[in-house]
Model the fold of this input.
Amino acid sequence: MYCDFFSTTQLGRQEAYVKALCKEIKERQNEAGEPIRTIYIGGGTPSTLRLEDLTVINQSITSQCIAEYTVELNPGDATEEYIRGLKDIGVNRLSMGVQSFQDELLQLIGRRHNAQQAIEAVQMAQETGFDNLSIDLIYALPGQTMEQWKADIEKALSLGVQHISTYGLMYEEGTALTKMRDRGEIQETDEETENAMYDYLCERLKEAGFVHYEVSNFALPGYEAKHNSSYWDGTPYVGVGAGAHSYIRNIRSWNPCDLEAYIRGIEEGTLVRESETLTEKDLYNERIMLGLRTNKGIPLSDVNVRNGHEMVTKMTVKDQLLRITEDGRLVATQKGIHILNTIIEKLMI
Done:
């Protein structure tokens, strides 16, 4: 694993989990007080579920206002029948965890697919009629060269996908790659190379007509992810399933990551969700943190005066880490993105 999202290998509990999930969906889908407009099934490998399971889950959703319906698909699980089945239940966007088109790198990070399977999965989806495809790519992998990274970008562009999400590898506590690094079996990519990979990515995708609308996300015009954008602009969302987070009326809540506790709690009506109510300070800091990750930035008028304007002047005029748009918004420059966390910390209160 190269990330630390909640996951489980208890495939024998799929039926019980799907049943609990459907019950939670029926109970909570009106919780936000407005119709469901986007659906995202992911955060793991939902394509290990049978089409019958996804159909049952889909039948639990009553909203007729869905503009974007995304399912994450592992390229190793892709078959023509499965992809067609997703389209038949109303899915109109696929997100594929390709990560790389280099077989040796895919093996290193423990992926179940190879490069050819990833290519074929994209092509199958296109032939089935999907015209909104996103793929994930990772850079700064151990031993990854700039030439390999450039080749991955070119392959992604040649496939004609509409959306590309990219992530620099992070070594999370407890993951296999972190353990390998700590044992000296692999080495982290140095910061200079990682920054060069990111800068090349931004430049090349801009040349190809992609909009860099969030630090890690690029889309052809009109194909920005509607669902993910809701996380960055403060739109309420309901998350269902083990470990899922929700955000409604300034309250963030989350389900337990314990699979058995989740199933039992839903079945018995005793599920306890942890939650926190965000203060005005919390909400301000989140607007700064999330807004500056996007190409829309934040209104300059939102910057807290106590912290704010003298520091902003320094970061825009002298350091060129931020820029002010014609309509008075503060946006990170390419230079600023490299140290975005530091900038955000300075502007938070």
In short: Residues 191-207 form the longest helix (17 residues). The first strand starts at residue 38 and ends at 41. The two ends are 35 Å apart (CA to CA).
